[in-house]
Every structure is written in structure tokens, then in C-alpha cells.
């Protein structure tokens, strides 16, 4: 708590651990990072945090910290600057990768990212928990690189689907991958 640490508030609402083992702690008084020895606190007064009330925290595959705040909106942060797909491509495109969708759980839309090491045809389909195809999101030819696709929670007819567990499946060249996501209403 605040009496035995540098937490900015005793009410902890979010926690994430990055690839370096740093603990990121969202509180109603700001965001704290603990590296095992030192504390760093981020507030509206010393960072780009739009509101001190941190309610959600996630770290994406590129190391960016996505910070959801109460009434202040969303912030993204990474030491050394936020990485976008174009900068990261150079180091990860030696293999096919299907990333976890973000956000997850989501409402009403989510982003699905796929890294292609070479030009190929690709299909991206959404399935319900019974294995029934709900939506064909992508079906075509793509160049090598990282591609981001947004699913808006609708089926092939444009109708909103119900809340629940869904799966997305990508087939690209000889590669196939499946991941799970949760739509909340």
C-alpha cells in the first residue's frame, strides 16, 4: 500500500507485467512501474496520462502500454517511444505471427494483427464457440508486412452478434493459426 511502497493510491485497479519483468500497476491516483528495486510514478502532472484514475492496462506484442483511464480516455506509452508496425516489421518478419487481438475483451470492435514474412494469400475468419463461421473478415492477396484488421462485432450480413467467446482463424500460405477473443456487451 502507500505506506510501504511508492504506489500513488491504495486502490489498485490494473496490473500488467512487461517482457523485462517490470510490474505496471494502475491505481486511482496514477500509474506506477516497479522494476524490482525502484518505483516510477506517472500522473497527469509529469506525463501524458490524460487522467490519474487508471482503470485498465495492457501491454501489446510490440511492448506498448495501453492505459485506459476513468473519464480521461486512452493513453499509450513505451520507454523510448511508441513502436508502430512499420518500425517493428524489420525485426519480426522472419516468421508468420498471429497476434492476440486488442482490446480483449472488447466492445464493440477489436483489432487483429497478422505478420506475413512474404507475399501470400490470406483469409481471416471469425467463428463462434460452436465452430460456425460468423464472418469472413479478409480473403485475398497481401504483401509481406504487418497487417491490422478491425472486426466490428458483426456477422457476414452486417448484423451485430451476441456477447460471448469467438475465435479468429488465419490461413496464409502454408500457415494456419487460431486465437480466442471475448465480445462483451
**Computed Rg:** 19 Å
Strand content: over 45%
First-last Cα distance: 33 Å
Looking at the structure, what is the overall shape?
A: elongated
How many beta-strand runs? 14
Order of helices and strands: EEEEEEEHEEEEEEE
Low-confidence stretches: 85-92
SS-derived structural category: mainly beta
**What is the helix content?**
under 10%
Strand order of the largest sheet: 1-2-3-4
* Main sheet: strands, sense, barrel: 4 strands, antiparallel
Mean pLDDT comes to 88
How many helices? The count is 1
Walkthrough of the structure:
The protein is mainly beta. The protein is built from 1 helix and 14 strands, in the order βββββββαβββββββ. It has one helix at residues 85-92; strands at 12-17, 23-27, 30-34, 39-42, 54-59, 65-69, 73-77, 97-98, 110-116, 120-128, 133-142, 145-151, 164-172, 175-183. The strands form 4 sheets. It has a 4-stranded antiparallel sheet with strand order 1-2-3-4, with no helix packed on it. Strands 11-10-13-14 form a 4-stranded antiparallel sheet, with no helix packed on it. A 3-stranded antiparallel sheet has the order 5-6-7, with no helix packed on it. β1 (12-17) and β2 (23-27) form a beta hairpin. The longest helix is centred in the middle third of the chain and has 8 residues, at 85-92. It starts with 11 loop residues before the first strand and ends with a strand.
